[in-house]
Amino acid sequence: AVVSTQSTGEVLEKDGSVKVKFNNGTTKHISGDGKLVTMTFFNGDTKKTHQDGRVIYQFLKDGITQTQMPDGSETTLFPTGQEETKKPDGSIHIKYPDNSTKITYSNGEEKSVYSDGTVVTVDRTGQKLILLPNGQREVHTSSFKRREYPDGTTKTVFSDGRQETVHSN
């Protein structure tokens, strides 16, 4: 079914703003100075278009707010506190409620920083480097997983199941 969006009326408010009502229940409010246009849709969602090019869409039912910036970036705020930003370069930046972060770059590389200080990077080949707060490092490749200790000791588990421990001198 096609819902008509024809206007049922336009009202000029005392403050100079204009309010337009549509047949489908949507309303459009244009501020007196023309710098903000707010659409309130029949389902309760709102879309605010600012003069500077920002567009803020609030999904009422889901509690999600999505902001598009003039530079092409888009930030989504979730009710959980998670914030996800898509940048014009194709990268995605996520901030979690515990202040952990994850960046996925357009070339496929990733970097995650956890609230305990652990840093995980993944390169384009899938090799993973984990830097732990206690000074230990882990390297994960398709052929082995190796833990390197601050004293120079390394423990390696190879993909065929072999294990190797090398102690520092």
| N/C terminus separation | 78 Å
Structural class: mainly beta
Q: Give me the count of strands.
A: 18
Large-scale geometry = rod-shaped
How would you state the average pLDDT, rounded?
93
Radius of gyration using CA atoms only: 26 Å
The arrangement of helices and strands along the chain is EEEEEEEEEEEEEEEEEE
Report the total helices.
0
Main beta sheet: strand number and arrangement?
18 strands, antiparallel
How does this structure look, described?
By secondary structure, the protein is mainly β. The protein has strands at residues 7-12, 18-22, 27-30, 36-40, 46-50, 55-59, 64-68, 74-77, 83-86, 92-95, 101-104, 110-113, 119-122, 128-131, 137-140, 144-148, 154-158, 163-166. The chain is rod-shaped. 0% of the residues are buried. The model has no long low-confidence stretch (mean pLDDT 93).
Task: Please outline what is shown here.
It contains no helices and 18 strands. It has about 170 residues and is an all-beta fold.
List the keywords.
169 residues, mainly beta, 18-stranded antiparallel sheet, 18 strands, 0% helix, 48% strand, rod-shaped
Describe the protein's topology:
Layout (H helix, E strand, L loop, with lengths): L6 E6 L5 E5 L4 E4 L5 E5 L5 E5 L4 E5 L4 E5 L5 E4 L5 E4 L5 E4 L5 E4 L5 E4 L5 E4 L5 E4 L5 E4 L3 E5 L5 E5 L4 E4 L3
Antiparallel strand pairs: 1-2, 2-3, 3-4, 4-5, 5-6, 6-7, 7-8, 8-9, 9-10, 10-11, 11-12, 12-13, 13-14, 14-15, 15-16, 16-17, 17-18
